[in-house]
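Exercise 7 asks you to align residues with tokens for two separate proteins.
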Amino acid sequence: MTLYFDGDTHTDNSSHFYIKRDGWPLTPIVGYCPGVTPPCPTCNSQKICIFFKAGFVGKNQSKWEEIMTPDNFELCNDYEIIMKSNFHPNWICKDCYDGGVVLEITKNLLDEFKKSEKNFTQKSKPIMWNENCKKLSMKEIHAKESNGDSPVSMIAVTRHQYDIDNFPKYVNYIKNMLQKSRIYYGLWSDGKKIEYDVLYVIPTDDYKEIQKHLNAHDHLNNGVTQRMALVISKDGTTKIRENNFISRN
């Protein structure tokens, strides 16, 4: 396969290319590089090719280029979502050859939050979604994150967040600075309001390790430190681990 670049100058280090296979004419499939892409959800590779299939032109393409420029998108390889996303850009990983569709983080996630928030109260248990906006049980999260039967702990990097406008900042921080390949989104009551959270998991319930993580992300939240972690056991039961090194806030 040969990539033919269009030679035009685009903002934010983006570029376009057209795909040509040996023995075949230049295709109307247009590739797009927004400069920075999320890692592959299967192998965590950064070698991602995003492309618009034939017929994906004009204002629809421009809309998605605007979405992807600020890195406000994610890569989805969930078959059911792919089948419902005919008018989304596609992607393929050059390392493991997994592929799927591009999703806008804010719109899909906000829709899920709003639906669940209708019946969510201050006494409700946390509700979690994965990066593809698929709701997960605590037992499913444990199965993904545990090395065996030992408990795991969910750590939020958000604090006092009541909208999702800044979520891409938190996602980039978890993946690029903390080098965590999986992130989760959650509804969580702080006892007064319903917070919107971005979280990651550590494969332990060790007290000192949890405390270290709870106190590591205050610079993202105007100096406000995390108040608690959620410890998940193999059977899906949970318990709160308080941050004992800070005053209640």
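Second protein for Exercise 7:
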Amino acid sequence: MNARIADEINEQKVKDLFESAVKMSETTGKSVAEAIDYKVSVYLKYAASTNEAVAWEIRGEEAKKMI
């Protein structure tokens, strides 16, 4: 996988995280930021490696910038 494809996949995951957090906030009454934090914490819990966990933390920060 080259860097361009990896970057596109990462951007898509950030977008998906944001969109799912918006849906979650509508159904649970939490703020979008709280929903992103919750979703990231779940991803961190089940991360297979440290690199994957760090990637999800960064994706969470990027998703919060979309608010």
